[in-house]
Amino acid sequence: MPLRSDWSDDLCPVRRSLDVLGDGWVLLIIRDVLHGRGRFDTLRDNLGISDAVLNRRLRSMVEADLLERVDYSDGGRTRQGYAATVAGAELLPVLQQLAIWGERHTVTPPDGGHMALIHEACGSETTRGEICSACGEPLVPEEMSWDKPWRGRRDRLVAAGELHSPR
Fold this sequence. Notes:
Elements: H1 13-21, H2 24-34, H3 40-47, H4 51-63, E1 67-74, E2 77-84, H5 86-89, H6 92-105, E3 116-119, E4 124-126, E5 144-148, E6 153-156
Antiparallel strand pairs: 1-2, 3-4, 3-5, 5-6
């Protein structure tokens, strides 16, 4: 998904990564999919994105192997939603580190509050994106929750390949 330039063949891995991830919608879509919100309508409504833009991003994210299409039942009809691939799920540390950076270096709006990243395996808040700062274990989506005070809930993430949390 090139932005200004095609960096897909560049020797620099940062440029190659930005060639795929450099559009802000990509990380927001991955965030929502890892939260179990991989249905098209749910993504569109939660992100406030147009159908056309979302369609283009989802298509390119499937082509880049960040997402896969998965079937789900909707009132007797089979529909397709999106789940993270292994490559998409491996973006969790990036998303979590962005959230931690945002907590530290941006101003929280008045109706906000501290978003805690909870490692469910040990029950502690982590202050690192890839390895739990409390227990030292690697952080994987299915063992993580994001406590969002402005929503009054804790959202449990889903594993690669899952559309919704089975919990």
